[in-house]
Amino acid sequence: MFWERAAVGESGWDGARGAPASWSRAAHLACRAIAFAYYGAAGLTLAFLVLPLQRLAARLAGARTSADLRAQRAIHRASRSFVRLMEGLGLVRVDWRGTEVLAHGPHLVIANHPSLIDTPLLTCCMPQADFVVSPEWSENPYLRRTIAAAGYLRSDRGARVVRDAVERLRAGRSVVIYPEGSRTPPEGLRRFHRGAAHIALAAGCDLLPVLIQVTPRTLMKGQRWNDVPDRLPEWRVEVGEPIHPADLLGGSEGRAGAARRLNAMLQDYFEKRWDRGEC
Q1: CB 188: neighbour CB atoms within 10 A?
Q2: How far is 76 from 125, CA to CA, in rounded Å?
Q3: Gap between the Cα atoms of 250 and 242, Å rounded
Q4: 1 occurs within a structural domain
Q5: Does pTM surpass 0.85?
Q6: Cβ contacts of 201 within 8 Å, gap of 6 or more
Q7: Are 183 and 114 in contact (CB under 8 A)?
Q8: CA dist 259 → 85, 156, 206, 255 (Å)
Q9: How far, in Å, CA of 204 to CA of 145, rounded?
Q10: The total number of structural domains that make up the chain
Q11: Cα 207 to Cα 74, 201, 252, 266, distances in angstroms
Q12: Given 3-state DSSP classes, what are the helix, strand and coil percentages for the chain, each rounded to the nearest 5?
């Protein structure tokens, strides 16, 4: 482990290793640069080599599995290798709690979004996942080819994204949504959008909450990649108990009112856990 700051005293020396703390920081930054360079190279390799060759091989072999599902499995493998590299380099520690259920869908997954690597953490647990992504990511020059190949859903398509998500859930596929719409700011959770609630009610399915916590906070929106905390960041990825929305239907307010109430329930669910330091 390169990042042992707990033993650093006022002198600036790492008592555990007998080396200046600045050396430890430099080693950590070097390893972080290696990890993100690997992630970038893996993304480009997926977009311009692996996925095109995969499509060609499938066409020649007459494969029945759809191209987007094959792409999602390739993303799963790349994410798993990236997370293992981050752990192996001593850059992160991840506490996985109940995440084995994510591998077998269909699930409508909702998660908070505290850091840049939340999506790789989820995709390394999910061989198949249809993410609902923002236009910012969909149009990113570096990511758009891979996102398009994976068939991810765009969040700015209104009722269409609800219909598409429902179709995929009914086809036995898992859908993943960050109801905040973007990464969680330092001061707390953003106001939730209602898309997840509308999808759950239209599909008649449960929601599976995933609580993601990183202590201390790092890789937040707008934060530079080399802005590192004073101690090893630890992620916890925890699957909660399913949330059942069916009992919200049937009132005089109709589905729109039920979606408002369900969205408020989801916000409250995550807010309480945020306040307790659980996400």
Answers
A1: 9
A2: 7
A3: 21
A4: no
A5: yes
A6: 245, 248, 249, 255, 258, 259, 262
A7: yes
A8: 40, 18, 13, 6
A9: 32
A10: 1
A11: 26, 10, 23, 9
A12: 50, 15, 40
Q: Name the 3-class secondary structure at 175.
A: strand
| Cα angle value 252/201/170 (rounded, 5°) | 145
Q: Is residue 4 part of a domain?
A: no
Q: Considering the domain boundaries, does residue 61 fall inside one? A: yes
* In a domain? residue 90: yes
CB 185 within 8 A of CB 220: yes
Model pLDDT for residues 143-192, shown as the tens digit of each residue: 999 999 999 999 998 899 999 999 999 999 999 999 999 999 999 999 99
For residue 179, give the CATH number of its domain. 3.40.1130
Give alpha helix (H) positions in 124-158.
135-138, 144-150
Among residues 147, 143, 113, the alpha carbon closest in space to that of 129 is found at 147
Q: Which domain holds residue 175?
A: 13-275
